[in-house]
Design goal:
Blueprint lengths: L2 H25 L4 H32 L1
Length: 64
């Protein structure tokens, strides 16, 4: 198998598992109280990763 096939396969499997886990949490009535907190945490983690990735480039542009 080529590397491209491995990449596509793992992306499809990972995406499918992610959707299945999200559906499990969304449809489970006991986790409805935690769903807002999990979404907020996910958004915060995503924004934190983005800004920490951009920060060194912004510092380099400022110093130049």
């Amino acid at each position: 198998m080529s590397i491209l096939v491995w990449i596509i396969t793992t992306c499809i499997v990972g995406g499918t598992l992610s959707v299945a886990c999200a559906a499990l949490f969304a449809f489970n009535s006991r986790t409805q109280n935690y769903l807002g907190g999990m979404v907020s945490y996910a958004i915060g983690a995503l924004l934190g990763a983005v800004f920490l990735n951009i920060l060194p480039e912004a510092i380099n542009l400022t110093l130049m």
